[in-house]
Design brief:
The complex is a heterotetramer, with two copies of chain A (152 residues) and two copies of chain B (426 residues). Chain A is α+β, with helices and mostly antiparallel strands. Helix content of chain A is 44%, strand content 15%. The chains are: A alpha+beta (152), B alpha/beta (426). The structure holds pyridoxal-5'-phosphate (2 copies).
């Protein structure tokens, strides 16, 4: 059992909690964007929906899917970080999450902005799982682009 | 089945059906590898097998001693390379009991072999309203080429359903295969369920309606004696990398008279007999289907892999796999919350066990096992329709080969208990 | 051209353009080989090059230390294999200055790469009355796929003629390439004449009429700096085995936007993103074009080959080849009754010399040289139309690479004198 | 030059003589069979023509082609061995030549029957050239089959 200790960095308590109890996973009615992404090699799936207010800012979000603890918890954690953001804000968050996963330096303020998602930073030590962690975020990036196009 | 004696066989306490793994393991350098502080336990053999020293050395020998392009050279190196290369083809022909080495085409892998048939044979022989019958448990490589052929030709793909016990429903098969069936394509051994399919019987049904029979032998040729004449199949596809051989090379066996009538698929050097600015004539079998410089080194290494397996005796290999499969199935019964896929009867299956857990995702199980140096595969196993049919998106799979032991299966079971406990406690 | 310093370059008495062959030869185990009692003189490099220890070792390392299937595994071996495998793709992309590794598709060889384009791009983009322009000096692998495409589609293949001096007639090329031209396909360096073709110029002419440009780089990528962006080509095909790499693997570079619009050609595992019983969706580039388990070991070894060549510096490699080619051309002048094919100007060609004798057949010359341990190639060199255009059915060819020396060329010339004398006297 | 001595076994005087001065190489008018074969890998070509009398026996032969000394001399030597033979006789000769090339034991009487062709037996030591030596004989085999079919 000792050998499993190394896993704690990957599976933080909060990560498993989001996996087991995903937040905002109910489908939205008439979302502004509705995107499905998957990882062709492992089959993990994420469906992300956003609604925006008149100001173009996210007013409702849903993330649902099937897959491992990392991909699904990352999706759930995402739902806590998008409310009130416009397309630019979403892009900024995606960029920040990518930097975190790549192991680029992230300031304390930025880490604070990521809230519970900082618990996922242990993924960096398991490079093959970074793709899992980023799956939902690639959906968000696509969503942000669609919002921008819609706004034009 | 009687098992020829080999220097690698021995009686064992567990009943005399296991290979002498201590001796075999010494031939596989990678098995000394440490992973996360533990000696590697490699249980991902259905994805690709490990390679014995003898096979690796055959590649080194070729490159260090007689590397040259084949078929076209009068110089010594080229003559030697051509000899050993063509001898490897003959070894493969003998291994599957093909009547002639002309029936043995080198491809990149099983997938390419099946694509070759879909294009070269399929485009010429399948028409509108025809159908191709395959199974609901197929690997993507034996599904998507037929779907695309059907789309090109206005034909239909039909799937023989899989029963609860992980076996093909042969009664339905008999109905699906009809006068409009041009080809039946089925895997011999399932890479997910472990099921051994009655492909010889399917061949009879196919031939009765004038259809041809293609066997996907990717999982059977490495593990059991496969005799194309006894099976009565028209095509057999398999990959060297799953049977002690190198990556990058596979085999298409095809009945000679059928392949004589097929047009080449890829064009270029070596497959022609004459080229003018106006057109070209084709070379004879097998070269007609081999365009450009072949994968010489890996063909030679495939010959070496066949030598190695011949030395073990494929009957012995199969007995070993079945024994390990049965042992694993038995031990899995201890595990609560784990569900094993495929036939319950160990006699109906080969040496692999796919499973899933009530709550822990296979990917996370695999990650935990990796911490303990145990390599298993997780995911859709290139059989999405089958896996989804079980109400899941992914499964975990432990697959065994000639060097695996009961002790390694014990370690797997303990590891799964620990992993499930880890996730349960958190 | 300036040549970067490398630990393998050195000044030489002959003018500073040769590589440090003594040092390089030490890296190639086969060069110690004895053939018929003499140390091998390997002058068949255009058929396939020899392999440095470093490349051979990369294969051994993979099989002995981290062999596993790629892309689908969470376990350590699979993660390591995937990393090194994908890093090799990035190395190749950098080597040819591709904007992205998504543009780099692994194939079996040059021939397969060209067939991929002929089927996947050609079938969708070439129609009745269209034409494909290639050259009269092409290799069969860059002729027959177009002839067959033309036959399937009712299109036409046009051949840019070759002038006396072994160069393409670019004035005629400008006339042949017209509004109905969909593709221009030309070899960068000729495997028979040694000619370096102005493929960049052809690309401009092709693009001016809206056609795409495919470069057969089988003979150029191993020998000179090739930059797909500078050439402006849309596709580039080449084989690892001619550039210090293993057999069984080649590369198709394709412009990303063009390949995004192309449909996959082979179907199976890895190239899909989703499969149901009804149909399938495709994976992204580059995987869309790679069905089944890839040639992992040889892709990794191709990365090692690129490392090796990068270390030498492709500018230095090219200078070396040109110097040897020029030296050989000069020395051939001494030989009566021998006729050299291709450009007289050594500046217009690479490191190979094809030739024939008034009365002794190339095959017999090759046999005589083999007695002296000298390996050359004889035959049609997979360029039957070109060779026959010279009024012969076969030619002999000596082709040089990074480890060849002027002394070896001296031995070739002496050997040819002896051989001609032998047959003359009998 | 010493190293070339080993070649003498391959290139017997008589072999080179047949190469340089091929016998019966003029095309026949209205032959009974007319067959072209080639070696796809090296490009060597042989065209063989036969005429037969009323008794089905070879009355005229022509062999022409392009290729190495071994393939072409073997074709020329062939022309000296077919006169007066019927299909069965031709098959017999082909079989004998194949046995010679394979290195199977060949009796003295058989060797005598092969006449000058026995000079080609040195090819056995150069296995890659056996194909060259047999090229014309594969044409003869085809020709014999055609004669048989014609006779039926
Ligand atoms: C110019 C050229 N094109 C294409 C090829 C075909 O390469 P491969 O046989 O590796 O497919 C070759 C080499 O034989 C060549 O020299
Ligand atoms: C049953 C089956 N068919 C086909 C394949 C495809 O083999 P490859 O990836 O070597 O083409 C596999 C292995 O992945 C398999 O298990």
């Amino acid at each position: 059992m000792q050998s499993l200790e190394g896993l704690d960095e990957l599976y933080e308590q909060i990560v498993l909690d989001h996996y087991r109890n995903p937040r905002h996973s109910d489908l939205l009615t008439s979302p502004a964007v509705d995107i499905e992404v998957n990882n062709p090699f492992c089959g993990d799936e994420i469906r992300l929906q956003l609604k925006t207010g008149d100001d173009g800012r996210v007013s409702a979000v849903s993330v649902a899917g099937r897959g491992c603890a990392i991909s699904q918890s990352s999706g759930s954690l995402l739902t806590e970080l998008v409310h009130g953001k416009d397309a630019a804000g979403l892009h900024g968050t995606v960029t920040l999450v990518r930097r975190l996963m790549k192991g680029d330096p992230v300031s304390e303020a930025e880490m604070d902005a990521l809230g519970d998602l900082s618990a996922l930073s242990g993924v960096r030590k398991f490079p093959v799982r970074i793709k899992c962690a980023l799956l939902a975020w690639s959906a968000l990036e696509e969503a942000a682009e669609k919002l921008e196009q819609g706004a034009k | 089945m009687t098992h020829a004696r080999s220097k690698y066989s021995r009686g064992t306490p567990s009943g005399g059906t296991l290979l002498d793994t201590a001796r075999i393991r010494a031939d596989f350098p990678i098995l000394n590898r440490q992973v996360n502080g533990r000696t590697l336990i490699y249980l991902d053999n259905a994805a690709t097998s490990q390679k014995p020293r003898h096979v690796i050395q055959s590649i080194v020998d070729y490159y260090e001693r007689y590397n040259a392009n084949v078929h076209r050279g009068v110089h010594t190196l080229s003559v030697e390379a051509t000899d050993v290369y063509e001898e490897a083809r003959r070894k493969v022909a003998r291994f599957i009991n093909a009547p002639s080495e002309k029936s043995v085409i080198w491809t990149r892998n099983t997938s390419e072999a099946i694509n070759l048939i879909a294009y070269s044979w399929g485009d010429a022989n399948v028409g509108e309203g025809d159908n191709i019958v395959t199974t609901a448990m197929e690997h993507h490589s034996d599904i998507v080429p037929w779907q695309q052929l059907a789309r090109r030709k206005g034909a239909q793909v039909r799937y023989i359903p899989v029963g609860r016990q992980g076996a093909l429903d042969m009664a339905v098969a008999r109905n699906l295969i009809d006068r409009r069936t041009k080809l039946v394509a089925a895997m011999h051994a399932s890479n997910v369920l472990g099921t051994i399919n009655p492909v010889g019987e399917l061949a009879l049904i196919a031939h009765a309606v004038g259809a041809l029979m293609l066997v996907d032998g990717a999982q059977s040729v490495p593990s059991m004696p496969v005799d194309v004449q006894a099976l009565g199949c028209d095509f057999l596809a398999f990959s060297a990398h799953k049977m002690c051989g190198p990556t990058g090379i596979g085999v298409l066996y095809g009945r000679e008279d059928v392949m004589e009538r097929m047009q080449p698929w890829m064009f270029g050097g070596d497959m022609i007999s004459e080229v003018t600015y106006e057109g070209a004539k084709w070379n004879d079998l097998p070269y007609k289907f081999e365009a450009g410089t072949p994968n010489i080194a890996d063909a030679i290494a495939t010959g070496a892999a066949v030598d190695y397996l011949d030395e073990l005796g494929m009957g012995n290999v199969w007995a070993h796999e079945q024994a390990l499969g049965a042992y694993a199935l038995e031990r899995f019964k201890e595990l609560e919350e784990f569900h094993v896929m495929g036939p319950r009867d160990p006699g109906l299956r080969g040496g692999l066990v796919s499973f899933f857990h009530d709550t822990v995702h296979p990917h996370d199980l695999g990650q935990a096992l990796d911490r303990m140096g145990i390599a298993i595969r997780t995911g859709h196993h290139c059989a999405m329709p089958l896996v989804r049919g079980h109400g899941i998106a992914a499964a975990a799979r432990a697959s065994f080969y000639i060097y695996n032991t009961e002790a390694e299966i014990d370690a797997l079971i303990d590891g799964l208990k620990d992993a499930a406990g880890y996730f349960a406690r958190k």
